[in-house]
From TrEMBL:
InterPro entries per UniProt: Peptidase_M10B_C (IPR013858), Serralysin-like_metalloprot_C (IPR011049)
GO terms under cellular component: extracellular space
Residue ranges of domain Peptidase M10 serralysin C-terminal in the record: 1-92
Protein name: Alkaline metalloendoprotease
Entry superkingdom: Bacteria
Amino acid sequence: MFVFGASSDSNRAGQDTIRDFVSGQDKIDVSAISTLSALQFVNAFSGHAGEAILNYNQSSNLGSLAIDFTGQGAGEFLVGTVGQAFAADIIV
């Protein structure tokens, strides 16, 4: 379990990378960051709070999770992964 307590824990200015992420075994817990009850996974931010983008490059085995908690149209939270994460791996 990888637990984050604030969006500033991992953002564009200081992004964390989870180097050994295994989908189905590991979880990314962002429940302490916001009172949101769910995330909406999208391809691009549109200015709505709770939007999240999951990216993955199969050839490099690198992924990322970006979350817009405030509806500003940009991800305040960004974490990289070595290994692919899916929506079911994220705890809100």
